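Dear colleague,

Following up on yesterday's call, I've attached the two folding results inline so they're easy to grep. Please treat them as preliminary; we haven't cross-checked anything against experimental data yet. The first protein's sequence and structure tokens come first.
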Amino acid sequence: MPPNCNNMNIEIWSPGKENEAYIEEGMRLYFKKTAPWCSVELVVLSLPKKLATADATTARRQEEEMILKRLQSHHYLVVLDERGKMHNSVQWSVQLQQMMNMGAKTLVLLIGGAWGVTDGVKAKAKQVWSLSPLVFPHQLVRLIVAEQLYRSFSILNNSQYHHE
């Protein structure tokens, strides 16, 4: 692995169902392109089917329980939330480089569930970022995050992909 990754792994956590075929194809493409620089994987947090009909409070509480149970001490958690701090692509790359420099083992980018992320999960986060003030479907956010990771590593490695 190139020195700038410092053996950090990246996991995109997302509650919900598996990707539609077109999303899966796009994510595989970006993960393959990012692979020379850093390992990235999607972790789909499967929710019980009965949760789909649960009220928002119950759903958020169950998602919180699942997320916190999975969270380990070596994880550097960044929650993606529409009310988080907005970064442009260059700022994403700077943030990634800072995390690598400080020796983060596994960066977890958490995409919140349909009802958002609880305060309990946000309290465990090192940072809270926003992709946009717009709201997107979760599967599309997965693809956007995969692309932004590739773009960030392209910026850090002076690739021609990103233009300013």
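Below is the second protein, in the same order (sequence, then structure):
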Amino acid sequence: MVTACAQKSERLFHHRDRLLAHPSVADVRGWGLFMVLELVETKKPRAYFAPDRKAEQLLQSITLANGLVFYSTLYGPRRRPLFSRGLPTWISPPLTIEPEQIDDLIDRLDRSLSEWEEALGVTG
């Protein structure tokens, strides 16, 4: 199981640069089958989404329409952030995920990020 996870981790993180190419993805970090994207309004200078932009809710809506569910915790309907930071989006597929399913997950995420960035007007 540990060996399989390591191999699948390589496949998942192989897509790191593809995700970082998005104007909203400031960082991709993690290990194993746990990846976190830090989503921002602009990379340079680093600017974060104001809660009234409802970036998290829009992201959840778009990813769900593309067959993905992510856990991200920053704004939420009643939550005020303690400090400014990017919108964290956690990717944690099951250990039983197949390599081609990882590619499909990233394809759906790539499409979702593009749709989300367009809806919010995020550009490079």
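For the second protein, one point worth flagging: Strands lie at 25-31, 34-39, 87-91.

Best wishes,
A.L.
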